[in-house]
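User: Quick one: structure for sequence A, then sequence B.

Assistant: Sequence A:
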Amino acid sequence: IEDMPYCACKAGTLNLTKNLSKAYAKDGVLTNMVSPAFVETAMTNAMMRSRSEERGVSMEEAVKSFLAENRPGIEVGRRGKVEEVAAVIAFLCSNQASYVVGSNWRVDGGSVSTIST
């Protein structure tokens, strides 16, 4: 239940992406979405610092325990890097992605195992 607002916003953003892609692709505006999960950012660093202090453990141990307890589906077993997300965005902005439209690119270490239709 605590994730409800986040889930509603994520679903809304995905539907907006799909609708924008349908409306504007013919005009050359290619709309896509990038969905990163647990990336090394100021926000997750603050979360892990707080967890580290609360538990009296190192940052490394805080991240490790968070992954085990809260994100066991992240198959690579680590936080993502901002550069990894940026690389996907750079690709989507390039001519190499000129046939990619209305897609949701998950940069999530394998945490979501679904097939999009």
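Sequence B:
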Amino acid sequence: MKIKKENKMLTGKQKQYLKGIASKFPAVVQIGKNGIEESVIESIFNALKARELIKVKINQNSVEDINNTAKFLSEKLSCELVQVIGRNCILFNQKKEKSHYELP
């Protein structure tokens, strides 16, 4: 698993655009009672690599706090935290070439 070091900030307009798209997506990865394990991080990394924009759900039986978890994941995976809403967070990591999303 190769993690990028650079992390660029999204503007409010770009975040709004990505929120609109991600609202229709189901959660790709769910974090359960075992919390954040290496396998979960690897699953999120692979999903970001393939899809660029994903939704992660933290189940109610999880001991993890959604805000802390979302920040931790965005820092660990060098991706952008677009939004935390309820028990879901939206993560974005744009490909350098052949991106699915053209940000405004």
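Residues 83 and 90 are 5 Å apart (CA to CA). The domain at 12-92 is CATH 3.30.110.60 (Translation Initiation Factor IF3).

User: Thanks, that's what I needed.
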